[in-house]
Amino acid sequence: MRNGGLSSGTLRLIALMGVFGLVVIFFATQIDNYLRASLFNRTSTSVAIILPIAVGQAFVVLTRNIDLSVGSIVGCTAYGIGGLLAAFPDLPPPVAVAAAVAMGALFGTVNGLLVSRFGLPSIIVTLGTLAIFRSLLVQGSGGASITTASLPAWVPAFAQANAFTLGGLQIRWMVLAALAVTLLAHLVLTRLRVGRQFHAAGSNPDAAAFAGIDLRATVLRAFVISGALAGLAGFFFLARFGNITVVAGLGFELKSVGAVVVGGVNIFGGSGSVLGVLMGAALIDLIDASLVRWPLVSEFWREAVLGFLILAAVALDAALARRLMRRRARRQPEHGTAPAAAPAAMPEDARP
């Protein structure tokens, strides 16, 4: 859908940037010494953790599903890789990162198989695996914690390593890695046939199946990607905090869903951009960090604000969808209806 030459996705990005600017201006008038380099440094590092999770969540939501287990996957991966590095401190960094991604992908495969092969509702499956994965972490750890002192020095150093600085703004390697993942996901979803199949499967499953797309394989791939990126975020979490307990990653499922829907990915599947997810994650983390420093609001309202943002974004999407349907209905001839063309609606490059 276009309006004045701009697509709805572009308009959504512009609106998000406008809201982001208004949030910065508002808190700058409420909090002393708010506009400092430390705000950017702290927020960008936090976004680098939630962003891969949200990007993976976007793949799942595009297929009309949801993954509520990502927080538990982050916790299990952070603790598992932390224990692995404590036992084998000479393990090369690329191997440790690959192990984190593989561990997350394994959890994602469990979710994907239950949803795609057995036809179970994703919200029920991942609500169950959220508890199962967390219980495995609690039982497997025996209540013990991973400490920074037990990790190789390069792990916490990675979270603090700067690629370059702009004035007082520190651009860390971890932030660049998260941005690289986002850019890669954007290219996959917009340029590759296999990426467009995620949109097709969520937009019109019947038409996608008619075009020859394997819906079960597409849903499985979405959950594997979600788990793998949650595993990567688990490594980032380990690097940033060092001290890992059994509650690591708790609450990330809500943040990831919030970043996805606020970023413009339709919760009913089929449309959205990971560039919007990037803006959504940045906005949510900025508000979260700002509310901590705002003395007029209790920190207990932080989750409430996030919940409000999710509800507002879903309501906006629903209103836009109804408006679009009314506009299409008005364009139909007064007598008769337009012939059905579901198979033709499938993009040519989305077909296998």
UniProtKB/TrEMBL annotation:
Residues 338-352 have a biased composition (Low complexity). InterPro entries: ABC_transp_permease. Its main location: membrane. GO terms for molecular function: transmembrane transporter activity. It comes from the Bacteria. Residues 330-352 are annotated as: Disordered. It is found in: Cell membrane. One of its GO terms (cellular component) is plasma membrane. The complex is composed of two ATP-binding proteins (LsrA), two transmembrane proteins (LsrC and LsrD) and a solute-binding protein (LsrB). Pfam families: BPD_transp_2. Part of the ABC transporter complex LsrABCD involved in autoinducer 2 (AI-2) import. Probably responsible for the translocation of the substrate across the membrane. Keywords: Cell inner membrane, Cell membrane, Membrane, Transmembrane, Transmembrane helix, Transport. It is a multi-pass membrane protein. The chain crosses the membrane at residues 12-31, 43-63, 70-89, 95-115, 136-159, 171-189, 219-238, 244-268, 275-294, 300-321. This is Autoinducer 2 import system permease protein LsrC.
